[in-house]
Specification:
Blueprint (H helix, E strand, L loop, with lengths): L4 H9 L2 H16 L5 E3 L2 E4 L4 H15 L8 E4 L16 H17 L23 E3 L1 H9 L7 E2 L1 H10 L1 E3 L13 E6 L6 H13 L4 E4 L5 H14 L6 E2 L16 E5 H11 L7 E9 L1 H14 L5 E5 L1 H4 L3 H9 L3 E4 L14 E4 L2 H11 L2 E4 L2 H6 L3
Helix pairs in contact: 1-2, 2-6, 3-4, 5-8, 7-8, 7-9, 10-12
This protein binds FE3-S4 cluster.
Length: 387
């Protein structure tokens, strides 16, 4: 790979963190055949929850942060607890103190304390064509597909290395040739609510990889967010196009590619595969974390349906600004609003073993990460259903 003089200097004479970051990015670039490193305008890092990174991750971050300072805007994924209300979440003291050391390490590095998987809805929103380096599969697929920004699906370490150097290897979805559709998807179903998440998960399983061009669906940003999160959960797909909705769909050449169809019965089957519990003790909303519009929808729903089980709502603390009224309404109906974390990366299993959720990603990760069982259903149905 061709490095500029400045990049060579960073590789050989940078701080320990800069050298390590450059080594990682150059190795990655060589594996994937990148000819050079390119600048990125923002980075989103995953690997901030102590539940996920554990002792090894904590030690790495503490050591790395001694010499690491981010060079570009760097936002960070959810932590393992609400930074202000962790004791009411029954988080053990030991977990909390380790989690706080991780927070301190990111702080030292100069990362923004977002603790959120929806950076694009709280201000880190790259423009069309901007090169970024984002970890968190649901965020990377959103950046590519809905915003038209360019990122590969980074892992926590490679995204952090991009934060420290401001660079990423130029391969994969940074290149025009890899952004064209590889398959066309006709959706013969009218979608609402959680069905976007089911559709995403189903398509991921069906296609595995590539770039689908999806036709015949209509949805707003939050629906596309849910669909992308579902798709990224069950596949390597990190870019999709939607006819008439996403910014690059018109530039995509579709002649000669195969077409697949998705019907209502495919979605029913997807639901059946994801359902691991008939009952639930708690409803968790917010995988991905909720936007202002989604917080308002939950508030409306709670006022209409009076849920029979506790409702926990996960969002970013930054999202709360401007959503005070919705949050107040959720709390007035007995709901718990949690910031800085998410249903999967906090030890929610200390509170509930069977969880109701409208998210396909939650239906996969809660069982995988914590052995919890999930009743997946539409939000309205979850609120109504008897225990
Ligand atoms: Fe976000 Fe956690 Fe789901 S990071 S996408 S809420 S697993």
């Amino acid at each position: 790979m061709d490095l500029t003089r400045d990049q060579e200097r960073l590789l050989t004479h940078g701080t320990a963190a800069e050298r390590k970051s450059m080594e990682l990015l150059v190795a990655l670039g060589e594996v994937y055949g990148a000819s050079r490193l390119i600048p990125v305008t923002s980075v989103h890092v995953s690997g901030a929850s102590y539940k996920i990174v554990g002792e090894a991750g904590l030690e790495f971050l503490e050591e790395f942060s001694q010499t690491a300072r981010v060079k570009v805007r760097t936002t960070v994924n959810p932590l393992g607890m609400d930074l202000q209300a962790w004791s009411s979440m029954r988080i053990p003291e030991d977990f909390a103190s380790r989690q706080l050391r991780i927070v301190e390490a990111y702080r030292r590095m100069g990362a923004e304390e977002t603790w959120s998987c929806i950076p694009y809805q709280i201000g880190n929103r790259p423009a069309m064509g901007e090169h970024v380096a984002w970890a968190e599969s649901s965020a990377a697929i959103f950046a590519n597909s809905v915003l038209g920004a360019r990122t590969n699906r980074e892992g926590g370490p490679s995204a952090l290395a991009s934060g420290i150097t401001g660079l990423t290897p130029n391969y994969g979805l940074h290149l025009d040739k890899n952004r064209t559709a590889t398959i066309r998807v006709r959706v013969i179903a009218s979608l609402s609510g959680y069905e976007f998440s089911l559709l995403g998960h189903h398509l991921g399983k069906l296609l595995g990889s590539g770039v689908p061009l999806i036709e015949d669906i209509k949805g707003q940003e939050d629906e596309l967010k849910a669909m992308g999160a579902g798709m990224a959960t069950s596949s390597d797909i990190t870019l999709y196009h939607v006819k008439g909705l996403t910014p690059e769909w018109e530039t995509v050449e579709v002649s000669g590619i195969e077409t697949v169809e998705v019907t209502e019965s495919d979605l029913e089957e997807a639901k059946a595969q994801l359902l691991s519990a008939e009952h639930y003790e708690l409803i968790a909303f917010g995988c991905p974390q909720l936007s202002r519009r989604e917080l308002e929808e939950v508030a409306d729903l709670m006022e209409r349906e009076e849920p029979r089980v506790p409702v926990w709502v996960f969002t970013s603390r930054l999202m709360a600004k401007g959503a005070e009224r919705a949050i107040q309404r959720i709390r007035a109906m007995g709901g718990t609003v949690v910031f800085d974390t998410c249903p999967e990366v906090t030890p929610l299993d200390l509170i509930a073993h069977e969880v109701g959720s409208p998210s396909a990603k939650a239906a996969v990760y809660l069982p995988a990460l914590s052995g919890q069982r999930v009743h997946i259903a539409d939000s309205k149905e979850l609120m109504r259903k008897e225990r």
